[in-house]
Amino acid sequence: MGNERATRQGGPGHLHPEEAEALIEELRQQASQVEEQAAELEALNDELAAAEARLRGAIDSALDAFVTADAGSIVLDWNHHAETMFGWPASEAVGRNLAELIIPPQYREAHFRGMERFLATGEGPILNRRIEITALRRDGREFPVELTVAPSRWGSNVIFTAFLRDITERKRDEQRLATQYAITRVLAESTTVGEAAPRLLAAVCEGLGYEIGHFWSVQEGADVLRVADRWMAPALDAGEFEASTLTTEMARGTGLPGRVWQSGEPLWVRDLAEDTNFPRLKAAARSGLRSAFAFPVRIGGEFIGVMEFFARQVVEADEGLLAMMTAIGSDIGQFVKRKQAEERLREREELQRFFARVSTMLAAATPDYEATLRHLAHLAVPALADWCTIFTVDEGGSVQRVQIAHADRGREPVAQRLARYPVDPAHPHPVLEVVKTGSPLLLSEITPEMVRDAARDEEHRRLLEELGMRSAMFVPLTARGRTLGAITLVSAESGRCYDEEDLGVAHEFARRAALSLDNARLYAESSEANRVKTDFLATMSHELRTPLNAMIGYTDLLAEGIPERVSEPVMGYVRRIGLSARHLLQLIEEILVFSRLEASRETLVAETVELAELVSEVRAIIEPLAAGKGLRFAIRAPEKPVTLRTDPRKVRQILVNLLGNAVKFTEEGEIEFRAERRDGQVMFQVRDTGIGIAPEHLEKIFDPFWQVRQSTTRVASGTGLGLSVTRRLAALLGGRVEVESTPGEGSVFTVRLPIRARPVKAGDAGAKGEE
Ligand code: ADP
User: 764 C-alpha vs ligand 1 centroid, how far in Å?
Assistant: First the structure.
């Protein structure tokens, strides 16, 4: 440097003028250099200040909070936005520990640990990234922020620079969107209102941070709201509040749901303690609930219910949220309406199927009064009721409980204990009323008081309570103007509540049931009449047979000249008396067989018999009859022997009946009799060329006592029992009889019998004969 040189060469007194001049020149140059440098420095300074001002301006006007802190978390910088965001002015913030200012107490530990770790290792998982954390305001409120922290080294010091952005609104919007999405999903996935409601309440609570949700709906038949569904945060201890909610009915205008019902508007209660119309306040306070909001569920103008939600902290009224909930309320309303319509449709379809089932079952039921009664009770459950009781009225007008069925077979014995309490005319009973008036009765809702009033004693009351009746219908069993009894349909476990529409269905069910019962009654009466007739026939025939046998015996003796020979004209009379007596005996035998069949007393007596043997016996009887009328009689039977195991007397009677008819109803031509073995069966066919049978009579001819009306000039002889007996005998042998005929050309009767007849229950054969 020039200074050094000047010092080395001594003081200015020793300088040569030229030297001095040079030195001055040099100094001048140096001075001007310094000046230049100073100006440069000044310019640099200005630039720096401008840059810093720009930076500060940028930091201060930034919409994010900007904070720097040293390694000890002491705040160095605190911009304007940090002041508003955290509520601390820079003057108070700078110099304090950052953790105490903006980190909620529960996270401070972690913050300090993170710092230590970074200082020791140079690693920090949250550094140089954008993360979301919870921050604390001066007033104690916590809120979500987005944070980026970057460390910068300054010599041996580290400085942390942080940008923080308040994302409360963004978070809230995201949360609402997610809640809305969850609700839409529930509505799309649920198939019933009952399934959707609790899930909707959960979606709102979980999505928006509420603890309890209730869905209040209008109680049917009453002008009050009741909780239909609810949801509660799992960890919450709010038993008392829930109990008080479940037992409360809200009238229009009362409480939170009642007010929403009345106004049709959503409602926000910032602090329940300050609300003057909140009957459940005590219980709510004890469960720590502070804030609530509620909104109406409706479709168009129609109100369906109210949803209410409770939080444990005070939540400021939020118009945006209420607006969103109002929209959701109408979505839910639409869903409820749609599901109700679907449910009604399904119920109607189910009902149609039920009636179809009732009709088929009643038609298929045996025409037995008792069996029909038993059937009825079980038909009604579970389609119409949880349990069903059938009552009958006897001739004296007293009412008997005859059948009880429960949808749950396991509960049947409980219901059957009711039998210990017969219907007593001295005690009012809805069934007595129904039987007296013939009009149905509906008890939509059975209250505990009603049960108490109906009970005869303590035990009866306990039984009625155990049965848990919720709703009941009483319908008369009326047919052909007579009340035969009544049906009680009770809803218990299913919780359904009967209305007028259900009563209509029950009434229709009872109408059909009564008709079927009355048919069974008529059938029983006519069967009884039939039995009396058959018994009479059997007795009469038996009584007639004895004198007839005597007549036949004496004519036979006379014909043989015992005790003495009579003259030829007298002999002629004797023969005719004998013939008529035999004919009469044959008719009586037929009646006896018929009455035995009718009384199911005819049984199968199986023997082993050759087909050829049977055919030749029948030929011996029929050939003379056919010859007598000038008819050809052709027989076609198998050449090889066919052994049958059957009741030969019955087979013979069948064949004689059919062949006898063929001769009787044929004036000219041929009677053909075929017998053959086919597929384990033996087939007999009787073909004639007689008058034939009109198609409309083909089935009737098998009815007992039925005969085709012949022209008045030609009265056919016979009882009209032959074919009826034939068909029943064939059934008894395990076979069947069929007929084909062309009027004017002739008829073909075909009998198929098993080669080996198995004993058939006599009753079955009789019933088959009816077909
Ligand atoms: P019955 O012969 O005693 O009158 P059946 O029960 O044997 O009674 O027959 C009932 C009716 O069926 C007869 O009265 C007759 O009208 C008709 N019928 C039966 N067999 C024949 C036949 N082979 N050809 C025409 N009609 C017949």
Answer: 25
